[in-house]
Q: What sequence folds into this?
C-alpha cells in the first residue's frame, strides 16, 4: 500500500501565542506546496499549516486532479484524488500533531475544487473551508452531511471561468447539505482579492475555538 505521506508538502508547527485556526493550504494549477504559505500571516498568523502539492501533472503543471478540458472535471479522478488527499491529511496530522478536525482548508482555483470534493466525500475530516475562485466540483454531488460546517466562498464578478450563477449553485449545494456558507464576492477576476482575504481573516478569527 502506498505511503499517504509520499508527496511533497510543507508542515509548519503552531507558533507560540498563535490562537487562529490551523490551515490546510491547497494551491491552484501550476502552483506547489510553497505558493500559498504567505497566506498564513495574512489569515491566521502563526497557525499550524499543512500545504501539500497536487500529484497530477497537466502539461508539466501540478494539479490536484485531472480535467477533461477547461471547466470540465474528470469526476472519477476527482473522487479518487480527494480520497488520497484525505488519507494524506489524516497521516500528516498524526505525524505533525495537527488534528484534521482543527484544519480549515484554504484553496485557490484547483485547490478550492479539491477542497469542495474533500468536504463532500469526507465531511467529518475538516473544521471548515475557505474557497477562492471555486467551481462546482460534481454535476451530482454526494449526499454529504455538513451540518453547521463553516464554508466561505469568494469568487470574482469578472471571473471568465465562473459565472455568478455557478457560484450560487455551489453555495446552494453546500447549504442544502447543512453547511453555513458565507459569500464574499469581489469585483476582480480569477484571483485572490486583497479585500476578500482581509474579510476571510476576520471570518477565520470568528470561528469557535477548538
A:
Amino acid at each position: 500500500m502506498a505511503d499517504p505521506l509520499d508527496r511533497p508538502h510543507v508542515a509548519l508547527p503552531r507558533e507560540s501565542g498563535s490562537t487562529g485556526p490551523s490551515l490546510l493550504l491547497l494551491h491552484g494549477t501550476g502552483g506547489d506546496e510553497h505558493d500559498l504559505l504567505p497566506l498564513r500571516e495574512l489569515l491566521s498568523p502563526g497557525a499550524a499549516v499543512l500545504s501539500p502539492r497536487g500529484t497530477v501533472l497537466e502539461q508539466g503543471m501540478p494539479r490536484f486532479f485531472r480535467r477533461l478540458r477547461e471547466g470540465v472535471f474528470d469526476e472519477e479522478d476527482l473522487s479518487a484524488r480527494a480520497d488520497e488527499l484525505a488519507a494524506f491529511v489524516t497521516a500528516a496530522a498524526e505525524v505533525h500533531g495537527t488534528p484534521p478536525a482543527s484544519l480549515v482548508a484554504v484553496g485557490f482555483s484547483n485547490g478550492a475544487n479539491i477542497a469542495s470534493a474533500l468536504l463532500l466525500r469526507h465531511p467529518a475530516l475538516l473544521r471548515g473551508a475557505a474557497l477562492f475562485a471555486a467551481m462546482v466540483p460534481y454535476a451530482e454531488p454526494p449526499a454529504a452531511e455538513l451540518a453547521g460546517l463553516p464554508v466561505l466562498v469568494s469568487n470574482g464578478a469578472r471571473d471568465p471561468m465562473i459565472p455568478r450563477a455557478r457560484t450560487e449553485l455551489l453555495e446552494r449545494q453546500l447549504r442544502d447539505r447543512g453547511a453555513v456558507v458565507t459569500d464574499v464576492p469581489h469585483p476582480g477576476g480569477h484571483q485572490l482579492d486583497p479585500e476578500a482575504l482581509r474579510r476571510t481573516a476576520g471570518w477565520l478569527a470568528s470561528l469557535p475555538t477548538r
User: Anything to note?
Assistant: The domain at 9-206 is CATH 3.40.50.1820 (Rossmann fold). The chain has one domain: 9-206. The first strand starts at residue 9 and ends at 12.
